Amino acid sequence: MKETASNDLFSTKVGAIAAAAGSAVGLGNIWRFPYVLGENGGAAFLIVYIISTILIAIPVLLTEFVIGRKTNLPVSGAYNSLAPGKWWNQIGIIGVLCAFIILSFYNVVAGWTMCYTVRSATGALQGLSEDAIQQAFVSLSENPWECLIWMVVTIVASAFIVSRGVKRGIEWSSRILMPLLLLLIIVVCVRSLTLDGALQGVKFLLSPDFSKITPQSIFEALGQSFFSLSIGMGTMTTYGAYISKKQNLTSCAFSVAFVDFVIAFLAALMIMPCAFACGINPGSGPGLVFVTLPNIFNAIMFGQAISFVFFLLLFIAALTSSVSLLEVIVAYFMNEHSFSRRKATVVSAILIGIFGTLCAFSKTLFGLFDNFSANVMLPLGALFIILFAPLILGRRAMRNELEAHGGKCKLFGFYYALVRYVVPIAIVIIFANCILSWMGVKMFA
Ligand code: PFF
Question: Which of 96, 102, 330 to mutate to test the pocket of ligand 1 (most atoms within 8 A of CB)?
C-alpha cells in the first residue's frame, strides 16, 4: 500500500486531544500571550480574548477538524479534493506556505528557549546583574550563528518525532510531554504566587479596565486566538484527518480550546505576579520572558531550579507546536509527491532550516513573519476556510461529519449560524478596521 500521511491515525481520543493541544499550546501561550495581555491592559483584554475564542476561534477549529476528517486528507489535499479545479483549492497550498513562514521564526525562538534551558542548568545566568542579563539576551538574539545552532537542534528534535509517524511519533510524544508541561507550569505558578507582592499581578489579571480596549486590541485578541489555537492555515485540518470516525469532534475541539486557554491563563498567572513582585512593567514586549524573568529568578529562593523548569517547559511547548507545523509540510510531500515519511521529513527539515536561517540573520524578516502570520495570514486563511465549509461542503455534510461517531451534535444549529454569518462578518470587520487604522482612517470613533 502507498505510504500516505493519513494511513496512520491517532489511536485514542486522549491521544488526539493531546496531539492537537500540543500543537495549540506553544510559544503563543507562554511567550506571546502574557506580553500581549500586558500591553493591552490585562483583565479587559482577557475577556475580549475569551469572547473571540468562543464565538470565532472554536467554530473555525471545529470546521478545520470537519474538513480534515471528512476528506481524510491533510491540508495540502483536503480543499483540493472537495473543490477540484477551483481557485478555492489553493487554500491547501497557502497553508503549506504559511507553515514554512511560521516555522522559520518559530524555530528561532524555540532555539532560544533551548539555549536558556541549558544556560539555567549550567548556572550561566546565576548572579548576573540586570545589564549582564540584558546583554546575554542581546548577544544571543543578535548572534545569528548561535541562533542557528540552537535552531538546528530544535529542527532535528521535531524531525525525529515526525519521522516516527502519527501514532508512534506525534501522539506518543504528546501524551508524555503535555502532562509534563502542565506539571512544570504548576510548579512555577506556585512559586510565583507565593512571592511578596504577587497579589498585584493577580489583580491585574482579574480586574478589568475596559477603557483600555480599542479596536486594535480586539484585532490583537483575534490574531492571538487564531495563533494560539493553530487555526487558519490547516494544521488542525491535517490533525482532523488523523482523528478516527469513532471520536466526537465537537468534544475534541472544546477540550483542545479548554486546555489551550487554561495553559495561557496559567502562563499569565505565573508571569504577572513575578513581574509585579519585582516592579517590572508587564507590557515590556517580547523580551519579557528572556530578560525580565531571568532577573526575577536571580532574586528569588530556588530561582535557578525554577528557571530551569520554566525554560524546559517553554521548550516542550514550542517543540510540540513545531512538530505540528512540520507535519503539515511532511504530509504535503508524502501525499502530493509520493515521498516516504522519512524522505519527506529530511527534505522538509532542510527547507525549514534554510527559511529559518533567513530569519536568524534578519531581524526585519523575523518581525515581519511574526506579525504577518498572526495578524494577516491566519485571519485571512480562517476567512477562506469558514466560507469554504458551508459553500462547498454544505450544511448536511458538515452535520453528518459531526455526528459520524453515532451521537447527536446538539449545538449544530448555533455552530452553523456562527460559521455562516457571525464568524465571516466579524473577521471582515475586524480585519478591515485594522487595515484602515494602519492607513490612519478610523472606522469607529
Ligand atoms: N499554536 C502555537 C502556539 O501557540 O505557539 C503556534 C502555532 C502552531 C501556530 C501551529 C500555527 C500552527 F499551525
Answer: 102
